[in-house]
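dumping this here before i forget
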Amino acid sequence: MTRKLLDRANIAAAQNWHETAANNLSAKSTNLQASHSRVENADFTRKFNNLDNGQMPYKVAQAMLARAKQWAQQLRQLMQ
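structure:
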């Protein structure tokens, strides 16, 4: 009887250890994902801030011109 109780206690301790290890790995994974996201955000911010003030209006103008061309093509298609 005592041996059976000791075996059960050892199994419970091992199960507890495994559950704790799994929970720690899960927390580390979550923290790593959050850290990665923060690094990506910081990298994007750095790249955006490094854009020269002259580049921004040029890029906006390019985007507006591309969109205007699309609208013109769509209008021509509607009129056909």
